Amino acid sequence: MTSIAPATTECVQVSTFVPQYRELSPGFGLELIGYDFSKGVPKSMSLQIKDLVVKYGVVVIRKTNLTDETHLELARMFGELDDVKPYLKAGRPNRLKYDELFDVSNVELDGSILDPLSPRAQANKGNSSFHVDSSFNPRRAGYSLLLAHELPPRGTGGSTEFADTRAAWDDLAEVKKSELLQADYIACHSILHSKKLAAPEHFADIEPADHPMGRHKLVQKHEASGRMNLYLAAHIHHIEGISSKESQAVFDELFNHATQEKYRITVDWDDVGDLVIWDNTCTMHRAMGGEFASKYRRDMRRATVHDDSTQAWGLNEHTEVRQGLP
Ligand code: OGA
Ligand code: MN
């Protein structure tokens, strides 16, 4: 662990305690210790953390002491928040107190553990493939802030894995980069596609092509860092303008490349209050699952920040329509 100079003295709760950081892999993923939000959420601290997320793609902050309220307060400092209102309107109630918190738990409304055979558990299976959040919606997600409220016992699973899609772009052969820049592919993202791949029987009657998809450039600049990025996700149903066979080949090649071990980091959730912030526009992530799923509660709550880059809406109409709704 290396000491990190706090942005201002506000960062230090106890004068003798200096926040520390550790790179999870060279240039990708940063772990911070000593950021305690129990006395509030200083703007200076959020700006400092945002800079680190832009640089490292993923920032893990241990034992934050955040609550639902301060979690949302911090998230709002990252930008405009997405919410679950369209799902509420569609008749899917939220267990959580605030519409801006997405329930990523295995917990039912009555507090019981989700039955792995239930429709919701089947739908959640899609989360175990590498993805970005909300690329299927008209406006994609920028940052996600996931906070642990209750964790299963150690050794029973529940870690989250991340992949570095900027490094994956950087390492492509020059000739491949030129080819991709020349092609300027548009990929079509569908939440139903990734869910159906993960649970084919449950979604047998769903045809993703019958539903709207989010359209985004496959190769694009990550504006906040100025680096190029492969905007990939298991949500990609097809690439426009080429045959489905070619489309599958282009996708498979890039997805297999970007999810190689050397681009991945695993984040283990150690304590309640651990927070992970990632930038969906330069990383992918997936839930690693485990034996805990049917035995122990894992209560995770996510605040999702709308992207505010020029690529936020991709090639989509600016509408409120969301996917995956009945
Ligand atoms: C998410 C997500 C993975 C996890 O919150 O968007 O994919 O490990 N979570 O819970
Ligand atoms: Mn996700």
Automatic annotation (TrEMBL):
Residues 21-304 form the TauD/TfdA-like domain. Gene3D superfamilies: Clavaminate synthase-like. One of its GO terms (molecular function) is dioxygenase activity. Pfam families: TauD (PF02668). PANTHER family: (3R)-3-[(CARBOXYMETHYL)AMINO]FATTY ACID OXYGENASE_DECARBOXYLASE (PTHR43779:SF3), DIOXYGENASE RV0097-RELATED (PTHR43779). Belongs to the TfdA dioxygenase family. This is TauD/TfdA-like domain-containing protein.
